């Protein structure tokens, strides 16, 4: 599974919109949209925030990444 699919799967599993996830990660809606469309990937710091967010919400990212 590629990164865009993982982001969408996690967001869907948490029953969040792209806007909800963007707010939770302190990034823009457009950023989440670009991730899910495969146009960009998060930088190292944002990736750490994303991983931490997932783990806090009961999603084991070690299996995903």
Automatic annotation (TrEMBL):
Q: Where is the HTH cro/C1-type domain?
A: 7-48
> Which SUPFAM superfamilies does the entry link to?
lambda repressor-like DNA-binding domains
Q: Which SMART domains match?
A: HTH_XRE
Any single Pfam family the record assigns to this protein: HTH_3
Which protein is depicted? Helix-turn-helix domain-containing protein
Query: Where does this protein come from, organism-wise?
Result: Dehalobacterium formicoaceticum
* Top-level taxonomy: Bacteria, Bacillati, Bacillota, Clostridia, Eubacteriales
